[in-house]
Design goal:
With about 600 residues, the protein is mostly beta strands. The chain contains four helices and 35 strands. It has a 15-stranded mixed β-sheet that branches.
Length: about 600
Amino acid sequence: MRRALRRVLAGEPRDRGLALPLVIGITSVMAALIVAAVAFSVGSLRKAGTDQDWGAALAAAYAGIEEYESRLANDTGYFAYGNPASEFSNPSHSVSTLLTLPTGAAANPAFGLGATGTWATVPGSDGTAHFRYEVDNSRYYQDGTLRVRATGRSGDQTRSVVADLKQQGFIDFLYFTDYEVSDPTASNPTSTTNCAIRYPNSRPNCNTIYFGNSDVIDGPMHTNDAIQVNGSAQFLGKTTTSWKASSGPNYVKDGNVKPVFKFDGDPTYQATIGMPATNAQIKKETRSDLPSEVPVTGCLYTGPTSIVFNSNGTMTVISPWTKFTNTTGDNDTGGSNPAKCGTPGATGLAKKSGSAYVGQTISVPANLVVHVQTVPGASSDVNYTASTKTPPGTDPISCASTTTNNLGYPIKDETEPFTGAYGCRNGDIFVKGTLNGRATLSADNYVYITGDLKYNDATADMLGLVGQNAVWVWNPMKKTTSNNNTTYTQLLGGTNRTINAAILSVAHTFMVQNYNVGGTRGKLIVVGAIAQKYRGPVGTSSNGTIVNGYIKAYDYDDRFKNTAPPKFLSPVTTTYGINTWVEVQPAFKPDGTYR
């Protein structure tokens, strides 16, 4: 071709007819190259656009999860909203009774389904990115967790993520305290001394409790007050406080010995976590007339109640004052007795052998919630018993003629730790044993831990203990006074106490009964979480050596990062944290139909 081209250019006459075909051929080759270049360029643009939509769809899915979190933060009841027709919410495709769609001004476009259903628009996307989410709240009624599947859409691309959300609360900490002072009721339960004062304000009538040399907190800790230390205490987990120093670390040191804050070097600031005023929310779980709010009812017991967990998955319950274990109406004006909670009266919960109560042994229901109330004073209440009467269906001596409650506390030779410690009609729980299951026990008054509380399976079983007032580690003593000398004799054999549970005292404290007398008791081993309004002592020491009560050995139950005992009480303001994110196959096509 080059020779022919040279001849044409040289004007050789014999090849004149070759010029036109050559020009056409060269033009065709060049055109083909141009077409290829354009095609490649257009393809690259399409690829770039697809990649952009692919990334934007995932970002939209994440935006959906965050938007749902914000709705939960603004409305703690938002967990009940969702589309009951969603395949994710209802794998069986049946209509869910746990979810309803918000209506009117509260309608949420993110709950749309199908080709004609709505999508929510990602803010700032100029209407090019959208999301939907589907809610599975079936576990909320067990442990406060929610599962959400969010699908993002951009252009012709969709992507989906699934997130597990858990209420952030007291069990996020091994040790939580509202005020770093001793409970004003520790020595005088009728005290009205106001110790609900935060450092650095003056609190002259209240005893500040310091973390000292022997204290080891092996897990996350938070206090709404200032952490005060007077020794080489060790804080091995993330430590936070709602007190902020004007300069230097966020703790107060008494003396020259520096504590150890292993996680961040020093405590970090975190906003105050509000304590609820009461544990009435747990009692609500025993009402049978609120199916949308309480789909699975718990068990209500009345008056002093003993619960012993058995490793075979049963529990032995003694509750002589109980008449109805489920109630209806705001004032408990109606009642019923589901078999799972036992049978009230002399053939069941108040059954006796000789002169002693033996109660009834029943299976631990799945995700058991128990509330023990004080004998009601209103005659309209179905569990009311007049103050002059004995427990219904039984024939023990009445409260007016005895210094013990119907369960036998105080025990023989025991000196009451304070007047009225074992009120005859009080809503007190006395609990011990080996739990095989998941349960939360709540009391109007005190929770007494009368022996070891362990799990049959430490990977599956879980217990919550919630006292409106103190949660006591029972430590009975006999007080003897002779020649102006007082001695205390331990009435419990052995040493050490093991408690596996999430513990919360709403209005008071977690502490050891008779912590300051009677000599040493060994180690108080708590595996779980402890939350309290005031600090509670468990022993006394001299020069760093325990002389009465227990040495603390507290360890966090890491499972509480992701789950909780059934219906365990939450802070006043509940926020949700995301435990896990995972991308899954897109749930919807770009047209809105399921894939």
